[in-house]
Design brief:
This protein has two domains: 169 residues, Jelly Rolls (Sandwich), CATH 2.60.120.260; 154 residues, Jelly Rolls (Sandwich). By secondary structure, it is mainly β. The chain contains three helices and 23 strands. Strands 1, 2, 6, 7, 8, 9, 10 and 12 form an eight-stranded antiparallel β-sheet that branches. The longest helix has 7 residues. It is globular.
Amino acid sequence: MPSIESLNPDVPLFARTGVNLASAGLGAKALAATNEFFAPLERMLDDSDPVFIEGKFDDHGKWMDGWETQRRRDGGHDYATIKLAAPGRILGFDVDTAHFTGNYAPACKIEACSSKSDDLENASWVTILPNKPLSASAHHFFKCDSFESWTHLRLHIYPDGGVARLRAFGVPELDPIGDGQEIDLVAALNGGRILAFSDAHYGSYHRLLAPGRGVNMGDGWETRRRREPGYDWMILALGARGMIDRVVVDTAHFKGNFPDRCSLQAADLQKFGDGLTDALITDSMFWKTLLPETHLSADSIHEYTDALADLGPVTHVRFNIHPDGGVSRLRLFGHPA
């Protein structure tokens, strides 16, 4: 069955299938904040879930995993500016106050701008999320109805306090492609998205589509040990409809737990519609084979070209690992159709 996390109806569709454009791991950057007395802004962009460490203090007080300002006494409010990992349309936010109880920010507002540089002194800021109340130690999912493409965000908190994580889920803007230029069609920064998976017990599954190689065994998709017949799988939407010419499967750092084999199926679902449904998961079992079952090895980069079937343009891929295990990165190189 699909992971509860991938299909949880309490989590909005934009958060289940969108790309977090505020991810430090994808390249988002903390630029400036009015105050960072208790905890630096850069922590708010971490990909890992926030943690609470009992008894950990630093020179400024209790160590907190997020951005936290000092208590204001002047009637103003705090705000911070970040650069998104890539220009893109934002579908919604998760303002997470995990572990902030008596020190969370009571309200927030988010503005956005589009700028070719990080010098934002003369930028034109637009409110894309009006004032919203926040509560202690909770996820706050807010839909964004803006249709423009943005490069920077400014998070206002009223009047002060802490935010553990800001996630801005959306669709990156795909750069214009020159004639004959090969791109990674499933890269998160090109709009590739993970729609569903059978299991993701270990690691950070969303890092499967991130830039670079994995830095450790937790930097990738790893399933639990399978104790029943079958195999694990993941369904992905390409950032652009295209022809897949080259596949790279990287098992970096996975040594005693890499999959024995992998295979790929693909389909052209232009008319299926966006989003995740049970019908899409069922349909994926019958997609055409792009890469037949192929053996993998430990801690290695595996590249496939000649073994790939010519399926023409596709929009979605099902990545199967047999029977279970861990993969650091998946690359699907090709040309937009």
